[in-house]
Design goal:
The radius of gyration is 16 Å and the shape is globular. The strands form 2 sheets. It has a 6-stranded mixed sheet with strand order 3-4-5-6-7-8, with helices on both faces. A two-stranded antiparallel sheet has the order 1-2. Helix content is 32%, strand content 31%. With 193 residues, the protein is an alpha+beta fold.
Length: 193
């Protein structure tokens, strides 16, 4: 039985167990629809995600998530401290991926620390790090993935590893930086998209 842990601001911790992938996907899809102002738009937008991942379409993924974060109603941010936290946006991303039943690992631990989210596909691994900035991006999200060697534990999979650093502005409440790098399946070659 797969389990996911959720930690909230007051230090409370919840452990949710899923008997199978279908139940996990159904629950996260229901949460995504419940938290969306326009469920029809969510279906249209999120339906593109698997194709974008398969094509390693970084630009398309950035556009998809920028559009989705821009669709979050302003009222949901007012008088809501959690919306100014990194975990708020990490949860939005997690529900996108988990609603498809993808092998999504929040708070993926390694010997060098804890990555915000990993997504394992048969032909690629996606590693995501999220950061909050005041207004201007500083590149710290992607830099942390590289500096801490989060990709190292996935190198034996012999598939491309996509590193994605996403920075959100506390003040603008949107993505201000979407930095990527791909480590090819061959350990001797790297490319920057």
């Amino acid at each position: 039985m797969k389990a996911s842990t959720c930690e909230v601001a007051q230090g409370l911790r919840y452990l949710v167990r899923f008997p199978n992938r279908e139940v996990r996907a159904s629950l996260t899809e229901a949460l995504l629809f419940a938290c969306s102002p326009d469920p029809g738009q969510v279906v249209t937008q999120t339906g593109r995600l698997p194709d974008l991942l398969a094509a390693a379409d970084f630009s398309g993924i950035k556009t998809l998530f920028t559009s989705h974060s821009a669709s979050i109603p302003h009222d949901w941010f007012r008088h809501n401290k959690i919306a100014r936290a990194e975990g708020y946006y990490a949860s939005v991303f997690y529900t996108f991926f988990a609603s498809f039943g993808l092998d999504t690992i929040p708070e993926d631990t390694s010997s060098n620390g804890r990555l915000d989210m990993a997504v394992r596909l048969p032909d690629a691994v996606w590693l995501f790090e999220f950061k909050m900035v005041d207004d201007e991006p500083d590149g710290s999200a992607l830099q942390q993935v590289k500096d801490r060697g989060y990709a190292d534990k996935y190198r034996a999979d012999n598939v491309p590893i996509h590193l994605v650093g996403i920075e959100f502005s506390r003040n603008q409440r949107t993505i201000v930086s979407f930095d990527t790098q791909t480590i090819s399946a061959s350990p001797n070659r790297q490319r920057e998209p």
